[in-house]
Amino acid sequence: MVALKTAGRGIVVEGPSGIGKTTSVINAIKDAGLAEKVLVLSARKADEVELIKELPKQVPFGVVVIDDFHRLDRKVKKQIADLMKSLADDGAAHSKIIILGITNAGQTLISFGKDLANRIEVIPFEANPEYKVEELIKKGELALNININIASDIVKDAQGSFYLAQMLAYNTCLRAGILKWSESLIETQESHESVKTQVMTALSRIFHDTAISFARGTKLRREGRAPYLHLLYWLSQSKTWVINAEREADRHPEQRGSVSQVVTKGFLEELISSSDDLQKVLHFDNTSGNLAIQDPQFVFYIRNLSWPQFADEVGFISLEFPSRYDFALSFAGSDRDIAEAIFNCLSENELEVFYDKNEQHRILAQDVEEYLAPIYASDAQFVVCILGPDYPKKIWTKFESSQFKQRFKSGDVIPIVLSSAPLGVFDTATSVGYLPWDRASVFEYQLKNVVETLLKKCAETRSSRRHEFDGDNNFLTEQIALNLVAE
Asked: Does 325-470 match 2-124 at the fold level?
């Protein structure tokens, strides 16, 4: 209330969708006696976005509420940030901006100017406490003269969302045939699981294809590490309906490379922006790196998915990754061009690849031998050694090969032998199948052949491992425990 009455001071109200932000703000505005001067604009509506863009030219404009601020493009967000700073500096009594957005909307706004932090009021809305949700359900029961027998279950499933509580209570009433106020008190006799199943069936018709589309990403890479699917799963576990993609990747080392790839190269943002259906339920802010859910119904849907069944339907060969890396590259510096090209191609196919240049910040200040030894000895499913004429001469390649040489027998080492290197100098490497590379031939053509072969090898291994698990009655349970819930 103080911020509402402070001349020029902007307000940001942030939090998950469906918890009552808009209603609370409108009520507060009425209590402050400002209701007659309020214009509510939504970033979801194209014509109203045009009005938002014109605000800097329309001063004075009274009180303007901008809903779904996070959906505005970066340029417009900056214009609004600059305007809010100007109004605060002038102590303008004639104009005030109130922003409504998802969690961390204030952080995004402040990113356009750190000095804005002291000029606006950021009010975080968290999930409603259970007693508030109980009060909401009780009001509905009194209005209809009923008792909902699964009210406590609805409160837990709602996880602080008024919208979800209303949705579940509504479906409970439908199943019980309650459509209006009853003269005599009615006690429902519905099963909690039956209500959830009914809701999930209805939501599946709305969200199934959208969820599948996101989980597959810009292109389904069946042998890959499913970065989009894991992002969606991590979102389903978030109480605030938002995650920071990079931080989640750091928390899950086995997914770090594939998730970082789709985030830093813009693939995640491109995927969401290319689909109207995805934009309705998800929002990615490339400034903060936050991925958020916008629709409370979608939250309920992904929280109650059978994830092993869903992952299987998406089409990945396997979600069981026993190794931190799919491939580790070993090479002499003179062959870095080949190594880097292979790394880039494998990473684009959503595989985890150890490549020293990409790990410098992690190796820094570490005992290098202790850091590298387990990677080549066991942490990578396969070691790809690029055997050029300088390979036997370098200290680090000698060290790396000493760690993985015992793995030749198990088929975990894939040599790429350059035509300029005499085969005789590689001993064990020449006794197994290898990939040839001729510096005199077309680089891109050889790269394509090598990468395709490595992808097939990875897919074959994933598939055989999956078949082993398929023979186990606990396969689905193990997939959840090992791959999706691993924290």
From this structure: yes
pTM of the model: 0.75
Q: Return d(Cα 271, Cα 261) in angstroms, integer.
A: 13
* Cα–Cα distance measured from residue 372 to residue 329, given in angstroms and rounded to the nearest whole number: 11
- Residue 98: strand pairing partners: 11, 65
Domain ranges of the chain: 2-124, 130-190, 205-306, 325-470
pLDDT, average across residues 336-362: 90
- Smallest Cα–Cα separation from 32: which of 90, 96, 102, 89? 96
Domain made up of 2-124: CATH architecture = 3-Layer(aba) Sandwich (3.40)
Are the CB atoms for 391 and 331 separated by under 8 Å?
A: yes
> For residue 389, is the peptide bond before it cis, meaning its omega torsion is within 30 degrees of 0?
no
Buried b / exposed e over 399-435, threshold 16 CB at 10 Å, is ebbebbbebbeeebbbbbbbeebeeeebeebeeeebe
How confident is the model over 139-194, as pLDDT tens digits?
A: 999 999 999 999 999 999 998 888 899 999 999 999 999 999 999 999 999 999 99
**Cβ-proximal residues to 160 (8 Å cutoff; 6+ apart), any chain:** 16, 19, 126, 127, 128, 129, 130, 133, 239
Summarize pLDDT for 432-483 with one digit per residue, the tens: 788 999 999 999 999 999 999 999 999 888 877 665 545 443 443 344 344 4
Q: Which segment, 21-35, 355-369, 401-415, is predicted with the most confidence on average?
A: 401-415
Residue 457: strand, helix, or coil: helix
CB atoms under 10 Å from CB of 168, counted, come to 26
Domain 325-470 has CATH 3.40.30.10: no
For residues 461 and 80, what is the distance between their CA atoms, to the nearest angstrom? Answer: 53
Instruction: Dihedral sign for Cα 26, 29, 31, 36, please.
Output: negative
In three-state secondary structure terms, 14 is: strand
For residue 281, what are its two tokens?
């339920």
